[in-house]
């Protein structure tokens, strides 16, 4: 008997049932009691300025909307306000004005302790740099998050989902850049977040490794129904999203909806 195969098969079966249940729930949550489509994520008239001797208006009345279970991409050059917008949506920074609502909750009305709870339970973050703890194993890096979450998924399930179950006892220095980013994705989704925010997740990776990471994000979206919002300067990535927001000088200059989604492995740039 191959215990490894039996165990991973059992994990896959458990994941499949969990996924089916969550997808059905997501379909129901996209509509209110009257059957009207509601937005999972919405911002309205968001403003943000910084005063460093000179006042810089970073966000100028930003509004966007996403349905539950969508992948969204925010495109724009450096300095267009992408990261500031994502930090406000993620509860890391506060807006000067306007509102953010996630899953019916007005994030901009939360106090500091409520924002900590929101970040811990509802939002997963993935960054360009992996931010793994070097003296912890792959599994232990994931458990840093799962141990403080109220309803975490199983670490072994996440490792299987990202294709790293057989490397669970390795240290970050023993992994490639793409594998380290996979660990950071597993760490972000182990808390079973409602929203996954990705800040240039392929910025430090080559083309083929980038495709692998983006393909994994599509898989996470499809299997778990996780709403994903990604910021990037790379317009080629827009093809894998249902909705694309183009930012320019602190404003959403254009919104586009893709009727056909491109698999990440076919993205060219």
TrEMBL record:
The keyword rRNA processing belongs to this UniProt entry's keyword annotation: no
Family that this chain belongs to: Belongs to the ABC transporter superfamily.
Biological classification of the source: Bacteria, Bacillati, Bacillota, Clostridia, Peptostreptococcales
The UniProt record lists the keyword Lipid metabolism: no
Annotated organism of origin: Alkaliphilus peptidifermentans DSM 18978
Record GO terms (molecular function): ATP binding; ATP hydrolysis activity; transmembrane transporter activity
Entry keyword set: ATP-binding, Nucleotide-binding, Transport
Annotated ABC transporter domain residues: 41-269
Protein name: Putative ABC transport system ATP-binding protein
Pfam families noted in UniProt: ABC_tran (PF00005)
PANTHER family recorded: ABC TRANSPORTER ATP-BINDING PROTEIN MG467-RELATED, LIPOPROTEIN-RELEASING SYSTEM ATP-BINDING PROTEIN LOLD
Stored SUPFAM superfamilies: P-loop containing nucleoside triphosphate hydrolases
GO cellular component, one term: membrane protein complex
């Amino acid at each position: 008997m191959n215990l490894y195969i039996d165990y991973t098969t059992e994990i896959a079966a458990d994941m499949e049932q969990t996924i089916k249940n969550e997808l059905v729930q997501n379909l129901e949550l996209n509509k209110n009691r009257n059957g009207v489509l509601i937005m999972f994520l919405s911002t309205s008239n968001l403003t943000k300025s910084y005063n460093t001797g000179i006042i810089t208006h970073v966000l100028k009345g930003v509004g966007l909307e996403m349905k539950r279970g969508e992948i969204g991409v925010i495109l724009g050059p450096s300095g267009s306000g992408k990261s500031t917008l994502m930090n406000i949506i993620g509860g890391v920074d506060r807006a000067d004005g306007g509102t953010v609502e996630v899953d019916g909750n007005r994030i901009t009305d939360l106090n500091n302790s409520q924002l900590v709870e929101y970040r811990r339970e509802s939002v997963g973050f993935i960054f360009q740099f992996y931010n793994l703890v070097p003296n912890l194993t792959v599994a232990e890096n994931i458990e840093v998050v799962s141990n403080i979450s109220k309803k975490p998924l199983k670490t072994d399930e996440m490792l299987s989902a990202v294709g790293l179950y057989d490397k669970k006892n390795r240290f970050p220095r023993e992994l490639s850049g793409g594998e380290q980013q996979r660990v950071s994705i597993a760490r972000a989704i182990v808390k079973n977040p409602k929203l996954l925010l990705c800040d240039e997740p392929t910025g430090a990776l080559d083309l083929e490794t980038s495709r692998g990471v983006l393909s994994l994000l599509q898989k996470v979206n499809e299997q778990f129904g996780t709403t994903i919002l990604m910021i990037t300067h790379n317009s080629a990535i827009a093809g894998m999203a249902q909705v694309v927001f183009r930012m320019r000088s602190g404003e959403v200059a254009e919104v586009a909806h893709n009727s056909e989604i491109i698999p990440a492995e076919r993205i060219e740039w």
